[in-house]
Amino acid sequence: MKLTIGHLYPDLLNLYGDRGNIQCFCKRLEWRGIEAEVIPFLSGSRIDFSKLDIVLLGGGSDREQELVCQYMKEIKSDFKNYVEDNGVVLAVCGGYQLLGKYYKTDKKMIEGLEILDIYTEWEPERLIRNIILNSPLFSAPIVGFENHGGRTYIGNHTPLGKVFFGLGNTGKSGYEGVVYKNIIATYLHGPLLPKNPQVCDYLLERALKRKYGEDIKLEKLPDRLEQKANNYIVGRYSDKKYVLKETIKRYT
């Protein structure tokens, strides 16, 4: 078996260690004897989504997002078709915002790809801190680091998780991210996947199912270091707002 991962515009969307998410995809496949191919698509590259099993759309500044959006307008319909055909996507921060209708900054309006029915508006106070989510998709908490001036309003979309510590989509809604079909869109950096192997395997299993037409359950990995990294954040912050006793106990 083999999965092909498309890394979209790493020359522009590269602020927050998103290459670590690519490395996590590859290593967790390699450890299970599954081949991984990574194709970086730089600015202006032609993207053939039919050849991709996973797409990573990372984070960048407002200027870089605007440039990326200009490139992606040319492939907007192809990308939307890929998503509607259950293509797997991880979109982080700027990539998350780009999937919506628009991002209104303090200076201009950046048109989005309209793949998700969401929109983002800038506010002067940045939302910066470690963050812990509880998601119904996973038994373990999701941890990461958020740093965004945009407030993303997700309408009727399903959030990735409920915020137990941190600020999330708007700083007020109590929720973070979006799950739609096989998209996970989120503000969580870190990078996200090494500290949350459950999220990585969730995306890998969906990509394998889509490609090979069967339910594939990946064999469990020890994940001792990954769990320690996750536990550290949960243990450090949970007593400050919410106590995640059962989750901590399960993974300690």
Structural description of this entry:
Helices cover 29% and strands 28% of the residues. A six-stranded mixed β-sheet has the order 2-1-3-4-12-11. Strands 5, 6, 7, 8, 9 and 10 form a six-stranded mixed β-sheet that branches. It has helices at 19-30, 62-73, 76-84, 94-98, 197-212, 224-237, 245-250; strands spanning 2-8, 35-41, 54-57, 88-92, 102-104, 109-111, 119-134, 142-153, 161-165, 175-176, 178-180, 183-186. The chain is α/β, with parallel strands linked by helices. Strand 7 (119-134) and strand 8 (142-153) form a beta hairpin. Helix 1 (19-30) crosses helix 5. It has seven helices and twelve strands. The longest helix has 16 residues, at 197-212. The two termini are 33 Å apart. It has one domain (2-250): Rossmann fold.
Binned, the helix content reads 25-40%
What name does CATH use for the topology? Rossmann fold
Query: What's the CATH architecture name?
Result: 3-Layer(aba) Sandwich
Beta-strand share of residues: 25-35%
Uncertain stretches of 5 or more adjacent residues: 241-252
Whole-Å distance between the termini?
33 Å
User: Which CATH top level class fits?
Assistant: Alpha Beta
Structural class: alpha/beta
Q: CATH superfamily name?
A: Class I glutamine amidotransferase (GATase) domain
Average pLDDT, rounded to a whole number, is: 89
Q: What are the secondary-structure elements, in order, as H or E?
A: EHEEHHEHEEEEEEEEHHH
**Coarse morphology:** globular
Tell me the major beta sheet: 6 strands, mixed
Question: How many distinct helices?
Answer: 7
Number of domains: 1
Please count the beta strands (DSSP E, at least 2 residues each).
12
Strand adjacency order, main sheet:
2-1-3-4-12-11
Cα gyration radius (Å) = 17 Å
How would you name the oligomeric state of the polypeptide chains in this document? single chain
